[in-house]
Amino acid sequence: MSVPAGVPGRLGDQTGRFGTAGGTILAHWDRAVFHTHPHGMASKRILFIHDDRLLLRFYRDKLEENGFSVETARELEQAGRILAERRPDAVLLDHVFLHGNALDFIRAIRADAANAQLPVLVFPSALRHLANECVRAGATSVIATSRNPAASILEGIREFLAKPGPGRAAGTAPLLLDDFWAKSVAANLVESINQMRHCLPGVSENPPDLSALHSMWNLAHAFAEKAALLPGKSFAQLADAFDLLLCELSETPDQLNPSTVRTVGQALDFLGALIKSGSSERLADPSNANLLVVDDEESARRFIGSALQMAGLKDDSAGTPSRALEKLGTKKADLIFLDIGLPEMNGFDLCSKIRTFEAHKHTPIIFLTGMATFRNKAKASLSGGNDFVGKPFNLPELGLKALIWLHRGQLAML
Known about the structure:
This protein is α/β, with parallel strands linked by helices. Helix content is 47%, strand content 10%.
């Protein structure tokens, strides 16, 4: 495929829209040369594009173990040069990059008639809205998210290349995370937490440092994709919720406020504690947890319910304190969202009454308030509340906050 030099937005362009050319000299294991299969048949060639080193190495190794030839690129511009020089049989790429735009990259691929039929597969992710945008830009398909993402990727590539394999990919042993990779991923996640903490001061500024915010999201996104490799569905669910919140804040930074920044910090602390303590596998599935939302506004109850559903949770609701106490008297709640401005009695008084129930002495209670003042925070704590979320609400923040407190309750970390 011949690509004119210096044409903006074309593959192979040194100054195109896909990011800078700096930093393209990779470690030895970041590169792989297209090779011939041991049986003498030319192996199918995959170009894998992702800006996380560990994920590049892991998936390259797993694909090569299963008979594919793989070349990797950490930057979209570097990938454009590879695609221009050597025609792979398929492209596998993530859709979030620190430098460059995956949508523009995909459109440029499709702008070349030679690549009209080239399978372009999008890496599995919880950010379905972004992955679907890649399909609208010309990607062939988004690989479905599963509890074994390596198996899903292998199966997806085989499907689009019609490459025979020994049985279904999900049943092949090389796709399991062995001890070496489990330790490597865990150590890398700790390092990622530390890197995100370095971004937090910039994110907390007023106005926020947008480059620090985008860097944090990039790290959180790769963190979620690596968490999906580890045992324990609930830990991956928590990491996905964190990825979703950072995505939302990166796309609409005006939603950054003391409440969301505080939730981001809480998530970093909790995720870090889970990894260091080895507790991530102990997290119970929160999908069957009983959550109660107490708010006198029906629209607010629906909004909060949508946020919880987005996080994979189910909720019950009450519009008055008396109805809430009635429900709590017959069924134990695992988490309570509590508005402050309620009829009959305010949220602080209701919280104090809830704490008189033996079954709810330690149930996490999160206050919902449009006035996150020092006085209200103090009254919330004195009445027995554990946390608060400021209005206007952010959907991903509510879901992430709920997951953090549900898991803290499970692990007796209140």
